[in-house]
Amino acid sequence: MNRKCALKLLRGGPEGIQEWNRRVGELTETLDLRGADLQGQDLREAFLRGPLRSGIKIDLAEADLRAADLRKANLSTSNLEKANLAGAILNRAAFRYTWLDGADLTGVDLRKTSMSDTDLRRVKLRNALLTGARFKGTCLIGADLAETDLSGTHFGNTEFGDADLRGVNLRHVDLFGSRFKEADLRGADLTGANVKNCHFDDTKLEGTIFTDAAFEWTIVSGVDLRKAIGLTLEQLNSSKWNKKTRFPAYLPSRPQKGQWI
């Protein structure tokens, strides 16, 4: 199947997708669909990955998928580097080991979608619908999630290094073991969140709310906590810090029981 034939099928509505799904398993080499115009197309349940266990991929780098309907599509292992998916419907799509470095996911619908083990470096995710989405083991280094409602999402061992998380809603979210090295969490709300074993190395936390957050074994080395909100001695006494850590003046005393690192 060549590029021209592939695009004709992908633009052919449900009947075209049915034929695409039948023929995609016959691919013998990576299919080059880089920069393809698939804006607004009905791609529901499309099998947009190469044949299973073949190593063959669908290359959709820099493709225009704005407002496309990709519900229940299988994009696992596909290359979507710098693709434009703004406003696309992606809920319940499969993304395991998908390459999305630099993709535009502004305003996408990812509700109840698993993004686990997916590369989302430098993606734009502002205003995305993420209720019930799963990001366990996902790489979000340098991602832009500012002002996004992340409540109801599932994280864990997620890489947030250098990510823009200003003003995000992470209330009661499980973030266990995630890493926020040099991330910007200013004004974020982590009320009741599970940040056990998280790493906040050199993270910006001015105005970040930690009321009732679970803090055991949390690393706050090199962090200025003076303007963080809602921290208690009990939380900080169970965390890890170093000599560069700065504590809030509103605490009744300096933390004593935490582990110095």
Automatic annotation (TrEMBL):
<dbReference type="InterPro" id="IPR001646">
    <property type="entry name" value="5peptide_repeat"/>
</dbReference>
<dbReference type="InterPro" id="IPR051082">
    <property type="entry name" value="Pentapeptide-BTB/POZ_domain"/>
</dbReference>
<dbReference type="Pfam" id="PF00805">
    <property type="entry name" value="Pentapeptide"/>
</dbReference>
<protein>
    <submittedName>
        <fullName>Putative low-complexity protein</fullName>
    </submittedName>
</protein>
<dbReference type="Pfam" id="PF13599">
    <property type="entry name" value="Pentapeptide_4"/>
</dbReference>
